[in-house]
Specification:
The structure holds three protein chains of three kinds.
Chain A (H helix, E strand, L loop, with lengths): L1 H27 L4 H6 L5 H10 L6 H14 L4 E2 L4 E2 H36 L3 H16 L2 H15 L24 H8 L2 H38 L2 H9 L3 H29 L3 H7 L4 H10 L3 H29 L1 H6 L2
Antiparallel strand pairs in A: 1-2
Helix pairs in contact in A: 1-14, 5-6, 5-9, 5-11, 5-14, 6-9, 7-9, 7-12, 8-9, 9-11, 11-14, 12-13, 13-14
Chain B lengths: L17 E12 L6 E12 L3 E5 L6 H8 L7 E10 L2 E2 L5 H7 L4 E4 L13 H12 L4 H14 L5 H4 L9 H13 L5 E5 L7 H17 L3 E6 L2 H7 L2 E6 L2 E7 H4 L6 H9 L42 H5 L4 E6 L2 E6 L17 E5 L5
Parallel strand pairs in B: 3-8, 3-9, 6-7, 7-8
Antiparallel strand pairs in B: 1-2, 1-4, 4-5, 9-10, 10-12, 11-12
Helix pairs in contact in B: 3-4, 3-6, 4-6, 6-7
Chain C lengths: L8 E10 L9 E11 L4 E5 L6 H8 L7 E6 L2 E2 L5 H8 L2 E4 L3 H4 L6 H11 L8 H11 L16 H13 L5 E5 L7 H18 L2 E6 L2 H7 L2 E6 L2 E7 H6 L4 H9 L43 H4 L4 E5 L2 E4 L8 E5 L2
Helix pairs in contact in C: 4-5, 4-6, 5-6, 6-7
Classes of the chains: A mainly alpha, B alpha/beta, C alpha/beta.
């Protein structure tokens, strides 16, 4: 109990730090938010009035407190570059990112884990070498480059997948809004064609985003598996007459996978925070590209809300990881009793 | 109070009841010009119910030999020769899946480090059940009952509750007991214990050794005990086999080999070990000079020659590999591979053992 | 200010608690008030099983960990609370040799570099001559010149430990703490290293604190011996005497458990408590061995009260409530 409380405490402290950073960030960037809001042609007076309106004339600590209060009550500011409240803008784009992130995560984990198991289990060196090579490629290749290659070959070349046209084929109606994730919503509404269309659009960007998590997990898990296979209980298992495959899957893998829980969680959090380059290449209307545009246009309401929001996501994911870890590892379970 | 054990193993071990016949075993590690013969042409017999102690230091090949007997050698090692016959069955000709049927069933092994011998994420009881179900066609419930009984056999208190406990909830000594329980689960004919008590405290060691003696007798299993500790071997074993640089250099009844050693290495080892029953007060210990040999670059002749106070420099010791010679003794025959073996009658091994006397009712 | 007859090291009521709070509550008490003394040129053997606190005692004396309370008087100066420069200067005079020579030597430095380093750190002698001093010390421990330029992994275990000993002795310390110095070495090499340590002690007038779990080695090597269990002293006295006639139930149990290399001698089958879990040391103020002791016979005082330190002989200390009930086990030499 005490450890959970202390973890939550640390989480709150992290959020506090992140919020201060988010808050200060926009204020140190060059450019006057009031002028941007008022417009290029507005008069000095109009700009000043706007500034007072936005509360920019008040002392910084007070502005910060307002920022926190507003955020918590749902007022994330007004996105001047778009013309809607910031919260609406961000939350409107979030489902697209979440959908993408979840599929990318699933693909990344499955591929990473299976290849890692294969690489560690095989007795043929060349298999291991090839897999390790793939892992390096995965980590070294820039995502947008991969995206372009995939689009070129699979979409334009072979026509297997749709091009960078966003989430649905242009002209196709969106499914009725329930979660905001098109595949889910379409399935819930029984619209099979829409669902498969949405899914087809989801695949290439998900594969691109899955590359880094897959490569990273592959490397981490493979090295853990090799280390675990040298533990004495693996030899004991063999001396008991256990078939090799079984000792790897039932014994080595759970032990080797434990440390990867933390890494996986962080990878998921990163995916959830959106990926700008992939979104741009695929025309994917996610949070990443929204934030990138907002930074360029100094729309600080969006940027600071997003920074704070992603800090929140990280903290929540991290705390969940710790809790999961504690449940899964019996050594930690008894220590906290 | 000294318990003098009888001069011969008595009815427990029958001389001609051979259970395991090992001939010409060779195990190598490495490749190319880096090949190391860890086990270099070792042969011996193991009789039913016999307790064999294999003694040696690093590089002696004792652990490699144990693993060879169970075909646990993995890349970069390989078994390159020799025959292993268990009750007439040629084990060296089995393929891997047949070996899986032997391991844990006909021959079982207990390892050195109880801390890492179990999967930390699964309860110990379940891991014992696994050993059972791998070889016996029984239901989970029956296997669980057997496992709980086994835990009780190894003197673990409240075995039913301990069944579901995790490895980290056991102490080192308890984990080793559980390892022994797991090894005995399928009533193996041979139990191999590789330094089973080296990582344990001396008081825990005493109880574990006693346990192994009792269980191996009760279950009719022969015991091969591998150790560098001469005291452990002396307490446990009927027969002692001394290994050096991958070869057996002396073999015979414990009562002969450890009391009247004939190979110069055995002799030197027994003298250099600090022992309470022969305390060298004040003076220097008769140490063996030099270091254990580098197996990659074994000189011709006897591998112990450079460190031997008798053989060093002798032509035969430095150029010719010693051949086996046999000695008949009151306890049985002893084989030695030495050009200049000791003649026990002439050896100044002197003073008999110091005695421990219990005298109740006096002041300290 | 101390005279040459005063003990070189005097430890009083050494207590170590891990993880406790600032107010002293909570945490694990690993040492419960240890007293010991080492005279000049003397070897004190510290004997015990795992968890006895013997290694912790050694580390507290050398200040690798800080004692929670107590006095550690070295040549009249209290080390326990020293810090900064005075402590650093004092470190020249107390050195330590560890159990695993491979990991106690920096694998990236040559042997010679490892042995010269303490001279640089303590600024001993003039810089130009330091290498020669190190070489001389390496020769003294029996390492030939050509090995000195090698890295630790090229040496055998015994050679590595010799190098570690050279490193410890190069600053000319008065006291050397030896923490299981031969346990990790091959059996045939142990005697060599023990002989070396004895020779060096005679040559250089060293005092040793010899931490070991092997009772025979303790008996052979030490002048006096202290037996520890559960962070407390059970018995202490002259080495030969103590092992000849152990007076504490734990010492007797320990000695009874040691297997002798003579197959004609079977150990008496002393009954031991069944394996119900970790054999716990009594956490309170009572005797640490209470829960496993045969002599206790269920009496509460062993658990509630710390046993008094009786002195059945001059220089011999035993901590037991029922000393007079402990059976006499006397080893006679024939």
């Amino acid at each position: 109990m005490r450890s959970i409380a202390s973890r939550v405490g640390w989480g709150v402290a992290t959020l506090f730090g992140a919020s201060v950073l988010a808050f200060l960030l926009m204020r140190v960037l060059p450019g006057d938010p009031a002028r941007l809001a008022a417009g290029e042609l507005a008069s000095e007076e109009a700009v000043r009035a706007r500034a007072a309106d936005m509360g920019l004339d008040q002392p910084l600590p007070l502005q910060y407190l307002h920022f926190i209060r507003d955020f918590v009550t749902g007022d994330w500011g007004y996105a001047y570059s778009i013309g809607t409240p910031a919260r609406e803008a961000i939350l409107g784009r979030l489902p697209a990112t979440v959908e993408l992130a979840i599929l990318a995560f699933v693909i990344g984990v499955s591929v990473g884990v299976s290849l890692a198991l294969l690489a560690a289990y095989t007795r043929r060196r060349w298999v291991d070498v090839v897999i390790r090579g793939l892992s390096s490629l995965g980590m070294a290749t820039p995502q947008f480059y991969m995206a372009l290659i995939l689009l070129l070959v699979l979409s334009q070349g072979l026509g297997l997948f749709p091009g960078p046209e966003g989430r649905l084929t242009p002209g196709l109606a969106e499914p009725p809004h329930r979660t905001g994730m098109f595949t889910v919503d379409a399935l819930l509404a029984g619209q099979w064609t829409t669902a498969s269309d949405a899914f087809a659009h989801l695949i290439l960007p998900a594969v691109v985003l899955a590359m880094v998590p897959a490569a990273f997990l592959l490397r981490l898990l493979r090295s853990n598996l090799l280390e675990t296979s040298r533990e004495q209980y693996m030899l004991v298992l063999r001396a008991k007459g256990t078939p090799r495959a079984r000792s790897y899957v039932r014994h080595a893998f759970p032990n080797a996978a434990l440390p990867t829980i933390t890494a996986s969680g962080l990878l998921l959090a990163e995916l959830l925070a959106g990926s700008i380059l992939a979104e741009k290449v695929f025309g994917w209307p996610g949070v990443g590209s929204l934030v990138a545009d907002s930074v360029l246009s100094k729309d600080f309401a969006i940027v600071q809300s997003f920074v704070f929001l992603s800090a929140l996501i990280y903290v929540v994911v991290n705390t969940l990881i710790d809790v999961v870890y504690g449940l899964v590892d019996p050594r930690i379970r008894s220590a906290s009793r | 109070m000294i318990e003098h054990i009888p001069a011969s193993p008595g009815p427990r071990v029958a001389d001609n009841d051979v259970l395991l016949r090992v001939r010409g075993t060779r195990t190598e590690f490495g490749a190319g010009d880096q090949v190391v013969p860890a086990v270099n042409d070792v042969s011996f017999d193991l009789r039913r119910l016999e307790r064999l102690g294999i003694v040696g230091e690093s590089g002696s090949g004792k652990s490699a030999l144990a693993r060879t007997l169970m075909r646990l050698i993995e890349h970069p090692g390989r078994v390159v020769g020799g025959t292993i016959e268990l009750d007439g069955r040629r084990l060296d000709q089995l393929d891997e899946s047949e070996w899986r049927g032997v391991r844990g069933k006909d021959i079982a092994m207990v390892f050195q480090d109880p801390m890492s011998g179990f999967n930390p994420l699964r309860p110990i009881g379940k891991q014992i059940v696994e050993a059972i179900t791998l070889h016996q066609d029984v239901s989970r419930a029956v296997a669980k009952r057997q496992a709980v009984d086994l835990l009780g056999d190894v003197e673990i208190v409240d075995p039913a509750r301990k069944f579901g406990a995790y490895p980290h909830e056991f102490s080192g000594g308890m984990r080793q007991r559980a390892m022994i329980a797991m090894a005995l689960a399928n009533d193996p004919r041979i139990l191999i214990a590789d330094e089973p008590t080296t990582a344990l405290d001396v008081t825990t060691q005493a109880t574990i050794l006693r346990l192994m003696r009792r269980l191996s007798d009760e279950r009719g299993a022969a015991l091969i005990l591998i150790s560098h500790d001469l005291g452990v071997v002396a307490q446990m074993c009927d027969t002692v086999q001394v290994m050096y640089a991958g070869k057996t250099v002396e073999r015979g009844p414990a009562l002969e080999v450890l009391v009247n050693p004939r190979h110069r290495y055995t002799e030197a080892l027994l003298q250099s070990v600090v022992r309470r029953d022969q305390m060298v007060s004040g003076g220097r210990l008769p140490a063996i000079p030099g270091t254990p040999p580098n197996l990659r670059a074994l000189p011709p002749g006897c591998p112990f020659e450079a460190r031997c106070h008798v053989g060093r420099g002798r032509t035969d010791c430095s150029t010719e590999t010693p051949r086996s010679s046999g000695f008949a003794t009151q306890h049985g025959s002893v084989t030695v591979k030495c050009h200049v073996p000791a003649e026990p009658e002439l050896v100044a091994l002197s003073q008999g053992p110091d005695e421990l006397r219990v005298d109740l009712g006096g002041c300290a | 200010m101390s005279t040459s007859t005063d003990p070189l090291l005097r430890v009083e009521n050494l207590v170590k608690v891990y993880g406790g709070r600032a107010d002293g509550r909570g945490g694990t008490k690993v040492l419960h008030g240890i007293d010991l003394q080492i005279g000049r040129g003397e070897t004190l053997g510290l004997v015990g099983e795992s968890g006895s606190g013997k290694s912790t005692t050694g580390r507290c004396i050398v200040r690798l960990t800080d004692p929670t309370s107590g006095r550690v008087e070295f040549d009249g100066i209290d080390l326990a609370t020293m810090r900064g420069r005075p402590l650093r200067t004092l470190r020249r005079r107390i050195q330590m040799v560890f159990q695993d020579p491979a990991s106690s030597l920096d694998s990236r430095m040559t042997i010679l570099e490892s042995v010269v380093e303490p001279l640089h750190i303590h600024r001993i002698g003039d810089p130009a001559g330091r290498e020669q001093v190190a070489l001389d010390m390496l020769e003294r421990v029996g390492l030939v010149q050509r090995l000195c330029g090698a890295k630790p992994h090229a040496l055998s275990g015994g050679q590595q430990q010799r190098a570690a000993i050279a490193r410890a002795l190069v600053t000319s310390p008065d006291l050397v703490i030896l923490d299981e110095p031969v346990s990790a070495l091959d059996v045939s090499v142990r005697a060599q290293v023990l002989n070396l340590l004895k020779d060096l002690q005679a040559e250089l007038g060293l005092s040793y604190l010899f931490i070991v779990h092997d009772l025979a080695v303790a008996e052979y090597f030490s002048d006096r011996v202290m037996v520890m269990y559960g962070g407390r002293v059970m018995e202490a006295g002259d080495s030969t005497e103590l092992f000849r006639a152990p007076s504490h139930p734990y010492t007797q149990a320990l000695l009874a458990a040691v297997p002798l290399p003579d197959p004609r001698l079977r150990l008496p089958e002393l009954p031991t408590p069944a394996a119900g879990g970790r054999a716990p040391a009594s956490p309170g103020d009572g005797c640490a061995f209470a829960l496993r002791c045969q002599v206790r016979a269920g009496r509460d005082v062993c658990v509630t009260d710390a046993p008094p330190l009786d002195s059945p002989r001059e220089g011999h200390v035993v901590a037991c409530h029922f000393l007079h009930e402990v059976p006499t086990l006397v080893k006679e030499s024939s």
